[in-house]
Write a structure and sequence with these properties.
The complex is a heterodimer of chains A (116) and B (116).
Chain A (H helix, E strand, L loop, with lengths): L2 E3 L4 E5 L4 E3 L2 E3 L6 E7 L6 E7 L7 E2 L2 E6 L4 E6 L8 E8 L9 E2 L3 E6 L1
Chain B lengths: L4 E3 L2 E4 L5 E6 L6 E7 L6 E7 L2 E4 L8 E4 L6 E5 L8 E8 L10 E2 L3 E5 L1
Parallel strand pairs in B: 2-11
Antiparallel strand pairs in B: 1-3, 3-8, 4-5, 4-9, 5-6, 7-8, 9-10, 9-11
The chains are: A mainly beta (116), B mainly beta (116).
C-alpha cells in the first residue's frame, strides 16, 4: 500500500515570503499522479497543482510550483509571494496507476499560516 | 460547471439511527468517490463508482456503510446504526478519465456528521 508523509504539521511565514511544504511518498509503481490540495478553514478542498510521474518537468501554476524528485520519492510545494488567502491546510495526495479504484492516498496535512 | 454538491451540509443524529448523504458530481464526470475525514487527518478513501458500477468497496469501514449510484449520476452514502466513532466529515469527489484534467478529483463541500 502507498503511504504519504507530510512531516511539517504547521508552518507560519510572513506575507510575501516564499514557503516550501514537504511531502514524501512510498510506492513500488512507476506511473502515478501526485497532487497538492488546499483546504481553507471550514471550506472545501481545492486542487492547487498536479504532477504526472512520467513528466520530468516540474508543474507550475502561477505562484505555486513543485519540486518533483522521482528517485527520492519527494514532492514539495513552493508558494512564492505568499498571501493572506493562502492560509489553509495543505494536503499532499498520491494516486496510483490502478485507475479510479485506487482512490487518493492523503498525507496528514500541513497547516500553513500566513502572517500579515 | 456548478461543481460537486453535497446534501445535507450538516447532520446531527443519535447513536443507533441511520443516516443517508447525497452527492451530485460534476455533470460530465463519470467517476465518483467517497472519503471520510476525521479531525486533524487527511481524507480516507472509502469507495469508488464508474458510472453506476461500484468498482471498489473493500475500503468501506464496516458492513454498516453502503453506497449506491443507481443511474450513474448522483450517489448516496448510508450509515446504518450509527456510532459515535462515525462522527466525521464525509467528502464526495468526481473525476473524468480523459481530457486535460484527467484523473483530477474535484471535491464537494462535505457533510459533517455528529453522532450523539
Amino acid at each position: 500500500a502507498q503511504t504519504v508523509t507530510q512531516s511539517q504539521p504547521e508552518m507560519s511565514v510572513q506575507e510575501a515570503e516564499t514557503v516550501t511544504l514537504s511531502c514524501t511518498y512510498d510506492t513500488s509503481e512507476n506511473n502515478y499522479y501526485l497532487f497538492w490540495y488546499k483546504q481553507p478553514p471550514s471550506r472545501q478542498m481545492i486542487l492547487v497543482i498536479r504532477q504526472e510521474a512520467y513528466k520530468q518537468q516540474n508543474a507550475t501554476e502561477n505562484r505555486f510550483s513543485v519540486n518533483f524528485q522521482k528517485a527520492a520519492k519527494s514532492f514539495s510545494l513552493k508558494i512564492s509571494d505568499s498571501q493572506l488567502g493562502d492560509t489553509a491546510m495543505y494536503f499532499c495526495a498520491f494516486r496510483g496507476s490502478g485507475g479510479g479504484a485506487d482512490g487518493l492516498t492523503f498525507g496528514k496535512g500541513t497547516h500553513l499560516i500566513i502572517q500579515p | 460547471d456548478t461543481g460537486v454538491s453535497q446534501d445535507p451540509r450538516h447532520k446531527i443524529t443519535k447513536r443507533g439511527q441511520n443516516v443517508t448523504f447525497r452527492c451530485d458530481p460534476i455533470s460530465e464526470h463519470n467517476r465518483l468517490y467517497w472519503y471520510r475525514q476525521t479531525l486533524g487527518q487527511g481524507p480516507e478513501f472509502l469507495t469508488y463508482f464508474q458510472n453506476e458500477a461500484q468498482l471498489e468497496k473493500s475500503r468501506l469501514l464496516s458492513d454498516r456503510f453502503s453506497a449506491e449510484r443507481p443511474k450513474g449520476s448522483f450517489s448516496t452514502l448510508e450509515i446504518q446504526r450509527t456510532e459515535q466513532g462515525d462522527s466525521a466529515m464525509y467528502l464526495c469527489a468526481s473525476s473524468q478519465p480523459s481530457g486535460i484534467n484527467e484523473e483530477t478529483q474535484y471535491f464537494g463541500p462535505g457533510t459533517r456528521l455528529l453522532v450523539l
